[in-house]
Amino acid sequence: MLPVASGATTGVALQATQADAVSQIRSDPLLSSSLWGNVALAGLSILLFVYMGRNVTDERARLIWGATLLIPLVSISSYLGLVSGLTIGFLEMPPGHALGGQEVMVQWGRYLTWALSTPMILLALGLLADVDRASLFTVLAADIAMCVTGLAAALTTSAYLFRWVFYGVSCTFFAVVLYALLAEWPTAAVEAGTDEIFATLRVLTVVLWLGYPIVWALGAEGFAIVQSIGLTSWGYSVLDIVAKYVFAFLLLRWVAANEGTVSTTARSSAAPSTPTDD
Q1: Which SMART domains match (predicted)?
Q2: What is the helix (H) or strand (E) element at residue 89, kind and residue range?
Q3: Residue ranges of domains in the chain
């Protein structure tokens, strides 16, 4: 696929412009710092989380720790892909868009990391609340579908309307995730004895995740009210920092201090025994 020259009437350039992407990143301190800052924080988080989980031995607690550790592992890979230009492209916005006919930098690699990291966040929360497998699978599937249709909204250039159709579908899948977090999983967390920390992490997750579609809508990919790619990138990066690294730190600190509460053995011994016939 050949790169599209500025001013062309149609076309998409994703992989053929890595050098252009790196050059633009380097020339924009705001954009560059939003990416490199997350590389550094993800690296530090990995080291910290490995240390925090060094003494965790229970199976369920280790599953939560493993899912949480994957969050910064995926993130550092994603942000390295962005700063290298590997997962950045330039798309010409369709007619009807505020920047119609102009090429816009699209950090499509962010959608890949969201599709891999946000399920780990939900998996950790589901394990913490000890939700049933059917509910966990449904929510994880809806989350991945949300990220994939969000990517479609960002990459569609055939028609402005289709971008918003995909955006609406993505938000519908998001509503499924929100329903589980707000209505179903809290009950399971109460039964599991983890409702206090679950409530804190639930609020953190819901509030911050609502920020992502807002940043998209305001940025160059949506209504282009904020046309600075650097500002939009920082919007996503700040959300990532709190929704991933701060979230993971709070969760792992609690699990390390309350391993017995999430212990598989403790749950098994607490379960009522089945009566036997005399």
Answers
A1: Bac_rhodopsin (SM01021)
A2: strand 89-92
A3: 15-260
pLDDT at res. 264 = 64
* Statement: residue 62 has pLDDT above 80: yes
Three-state SS annotation for 99-117 = CCCCEEEECCHHHHHHHHH
Indicate the pLDDT class of residue 40, thresholds 50, 70 and 90: very high
Q: Yes or no: say if 42 and 248 are a contact pair by the CB < 8 Å rule.
A: no
What's the burial of 6, exposed, middle or buried (CB within 10 Å: 0-12/13-18/19+)?
A: exposed
Q: Which tokens belong to 147?
A: 């990220």
What is the C-alpha separation between 244 and 241, in angstroms, rounded?
Answer: 6
Fold of 15-260: Rhopdopsin 7-helix transmembrane proteins (1.20.1070)
